[in-house]
Design brief:
Blueprint: H1 4-13, H2 18-31, E1 38-41, H3 43-59, E2 69-73, H4 100-107, E3 111-116, H5 150-157, E4 163-168, H6 174-180, E5 183-186, E6 206-211, H7 214-224, E7 254-258, H8 268-283, E8 287-291, H9 299-314, H10 333-344, H11 347-360, H12 365-386, E9 392-396, H13 412-416, H14 423-428, E10 432-439, E11 445-452, H15 457-469
Parallel strand pairs: 2-3, 2-4, 7-8, 7-9
Antiparallel strand pairs: 1-3, 4-6, 5-6, 5-10, 9-11, 10-11
Helix pairs in contact: 2-3, 9-11, 9-12
């Protein structure tokens, strides 16, 4: 596993080339096929890209990510490649265009090596819901890598790409980053264009990087962030120099510790690891203070009302009529709709569509959806209030380390509670990052989460980089 700094050092010294680096990653992907991290690999295209980058380096015209090899979650469009979303219903769908984030990576001379496995339509916390088989945790293949961006997290952890892109609707970048022991960032809603991201819940979804270091995550965000006229929710906010924020200094920084995130249900080893890092901040001059986010107990319920409602609407387009899987043998249009969706979607996606349709129905809209929107506002207000007194918040990323495959498949509520510390950031639209902060007694990674103010990724990068290198 190599960070971008080490790759660039080898390139600058003449020891290697982008083509050789790409070949090495392709070899690791082949050797690690049992982990099932990739749904598609682009050997010819990636090597051709790499050769072009080598020519640009020789000419002195290469972009800022020359030498970086990136894998892309299979919910993000790459031109002329399949975008399955981990679902049978899109098994043969080929994207006619690049997502904005992919275009920007290519313009910066990153090499795109393949598409990573994921929970179907990004609905899951373990990457067991993929129609193409589960992804395995590299440290213990009997365990899950988290979800829904499990393939992207494993690709980075197993040395199959330098960095990866994932999507985060309720923790789908940060939770697998925690389980696998890598860095994972969910940017502020609107910071990164969603054009070319297949929608799960449009007011929650965010694209972000997974990497071996905070510095690499900051580099990728600096390239993919910024306004995009193709996305009406993309914010016209300047993109700062994130690398310049990595000062190795936290003196005087006000760090809030939400008391609601350190209660019952949190594994003792996770609590201890996070508290040790908080002590490190304190010893180096950060001002640590307890804060309260009083509506935290409602985040999971609110999230699974609102996100499933949006999923129900967004997934209505997959009906077998226009594109995607179409069931055979139907006698009329309605039967074709029913059979195509029944056969094309997996159990978890169907569960969420039904839940979302229920909360939007005329008899229950006020009781569930409207009330959920009101509670979302209260949760947002909790963060606004807390950030009047502190610069960032520190919490565990997940209440536990990775669990065994199959352990929670038949208990959706326990699976949903895996995201109890991450969904609030999506409800509030704020940025959050997960970084490794130790291991439990079984050697499984523990993640620490840093939450920041709207569009203040720079501060959470600053804290993350300090903790990572101290």
């Amino acid at each position: 596993m190599k960070t971008f700094d080490s790759i660039r050092a080898e390139l600058d010294s003449g020891k290697t080339s982008c083509e050789k680096i790409t070949q090495e990653y392709l070899g690791v992907i082949e050797q690690g096929k049992r982990l099932n991290a990739f749904l598609a690999v682009f050997p010819e295209q990636s090597l051709e890209q790499a050769r072009t980058v080598d020519k640009k380096r020789s000419a002195g015209t290469a972009g800022p990510l020359a030498g970086m090899v990136v894998s892309i979650k299979d919910v993000i469009c790459v031109k002329d490649a399949r975008v399955t979303c981990g679902s049978k219903i899109l098994e043969h769908f080929v994207s006619p265009y690049d997502a904005t984030v992919v275009s920007r990576l290519k313009q910066a001379d990153a090499v795109i090596i393949g598409k990573t496995n994921m929970d179907e339509f990004a609905m899951g916390s373990s990457t067991e819901n993929s129609a193409y088989g589960r992804v395995k945790l590299p440290q213990d293949e009997s365990r899950v890598p988290g979800g829904s961006s499990g393939g992207s997290a494993v690709a980075v952890r197993a040395g199959m790409s330098t960095t990866a892109l994932g999507s985060d609707t309720g923790g789908s970048i940060r939770q697998p980053a925690s389980f696998t022991g890598v860095v994972g960032l969910k940017p502020t809603y609107g910071r990164v264009s969603r054009y070319g991201l297949v929608a799960f819940a449009s007011s929650f979804d965010a694209i972000g990087p997974l990497a071996l270091s905070t510095k690499d995550a900051a580099r990728v965000l600096g390239v993919i962030a910024g306004h995009d006229e193709h996305d009406s929710t993309s914010a016209e906010v300047p993109v700062p120099n994130y690398l310049g924020a990595l000062t190795k200094d936290v003196k005087g920084l006000r760090v809030g510790i939400p008391k609601e995130y350190f209660g019952s249900g949190l594994e003792a080893e996770v609590r201890d690891a996070v508290e040790k890092k908080i002590d490190v901040l304190r010893k180096h001059g950060a001002i640590i203070q307890e804060v309260s986010l009083p509506h935290s107990e409602y985040t999971i319920a609110t999230y699974y009302i609102l996100a499933t409602a949006e999923a129900s609407s967004n997934l209505a387009r997959y009906d077998g009529a226009r594109y995607g899987y179409r069931a055979k043998g139907a006698n009329d249009l309605m039967e074709m709709y029913v059979q195509s969706r029944s056969q094309g979607f997996g159990a978890e996606v169907k569960r969420r569509i039904m839940l979302g349709t229920y909360v939007l129905s005329s008899g229950y809209y006020d009781a569930y959806y409207r009330k959920g929107q009101k509670v979302r506002r209260l949760i947002q207000d909790d963060f606004i209030s807390a950030f009047k007194n502190v610069d960032c918040l520190i919490t565990p990323t997940s209440p536990s380390t990775s669990f065994k495959a199959g352990e929670k498949v038949d208990d959706p509520l326990q699976m949903y509670l895996s995201d109890i510390f991450t969904t609030s950031a999506n409800l509030a639209g704020i940025p959050g990052i997960s970084i490794p902060c130790g291991n439990d007694r079984q050697g499984l990674p523990i993640g620490l989460q840093i939450l920041g103010k709207h569009f203040d990724e720079a501060t959470i990068f600053r804290v993350a980089d300090f903790l990572e290198t101290t």
